[in-house]
Amino acid sequence: xxxxxxxxxxWVWVPILYFTQGIPYILIVTVSVIMYKRxxxxxxxxxxxxxxxxxxxxxxxxxxxxxxxxxxxRKWFLAMQxxxxxxxxxxxxxxxxxxFFLVSxxxxxxxxxxxxxxxxxxxxxxxxxxxxxxxxxxxxxxxTFYRLAMVTGQGLLVIFxxxxxxxxxxxxxxxxxxMICAAVLMLMLTISNFFAAPKxxxxxxxxxxxxxxxxxxxATFFRKKxxxxxxxxxxxxxxxESQLVKMASPFLLxxxxxxxxxxxxxxxxxxxxxxxxxxxxxxxIIGGILISRDGLKKWMLPMLLSLNLxxxxxxxxxxxxxxxxxxxVGTVVVxxxxxxxxxxAFLIYLIYIAExxxxxxxxxxxxxFMALGMMLPGMLSGYIQEWLxxxxxxxxxxxxxxxxxxxxxxxxxxxxxxxxNANSNE
Length: 426
Description:
This protein has a single domain, classed as MFS general substrate transporter like domains (Growth Hormone, Chain: A). The protein contains 19 helices and no strands. It is globular and about 55 Å long.
């Protein structure tokens, strides 16, 4: 069959596509927390309402078959990225209004639904455009650029917002301009994807990935072997992190009187945008290489440990109440490396769960459960923090990470899954 061969141009389109996927996610679920904190919204409201923004990622399996059945993955992700750009513009323009909280949340919802749909199409495109060998090989690069996008949002854009706060002495104006700049960034990335992403689906036969009908997609997913244990593991893998990620930035920004470390917006952005970028890149790349070399089973426990070690360090910061730059930066270093390293195993496991017919939709279902595991604990995180204080909260986060470790011995997956794919000739 003539046309675009699999794996073509992957060194270009994989980094751009997953950098683009990460930008809206981090702005919606994490930077929104910092923004609302700087605009005077309370922790309980922040935790509740920004956690609701996970809902589109939870529900995306419901419309994932539509992405499979209609059009190409490439057309879908380009359209959704454009909608995200417009939504961020709406957020920026709405912040100076009296009803900024309600209106900006509505635009965040619009961006969240578009971003979740973009994820479906992008992940489907990744599995269609790459052989299994390259899927394992590029998992480290994919997760690294996704997390680099997250650090760009949580680092560089927050630094920029902090700079504008100091320049204008007006947090509203600073964040309005920051979100407008985020809209421009998304538009530029959309244009880049238009030129970088080959038209695989017009050249390759994708019948094996097309579901027979809408309901067949869900039936075949829930008939997979030991799917109950797999879904429970997916729900608990990030149970501790899902709460920590909501309250880590408020902890660094809050005053010492309420248990915070009293860091400035610019300082928080600088920490995440410098050493955070370096350690994240190392963690993601090393994680992908090791799984590709040794298989998933060997590295699942070490990677789960690396994901949750930062929980303990945040608890130590809260209990000692130290605002030492060395201690805070050291915590972020471990957090970013551990996340990049630990998340590589999770991504490979989700791809394994999705293997077979309708893998685009099945991957969306698996990541939908992952989002549910982030949303529900995150919704309660602000209330738990206000009830227990920061020291008690981070101790609870350490405990919340334990169920995933208990489930490891019940987990079933090919011991050499990543290694097998990496060494195959497909």
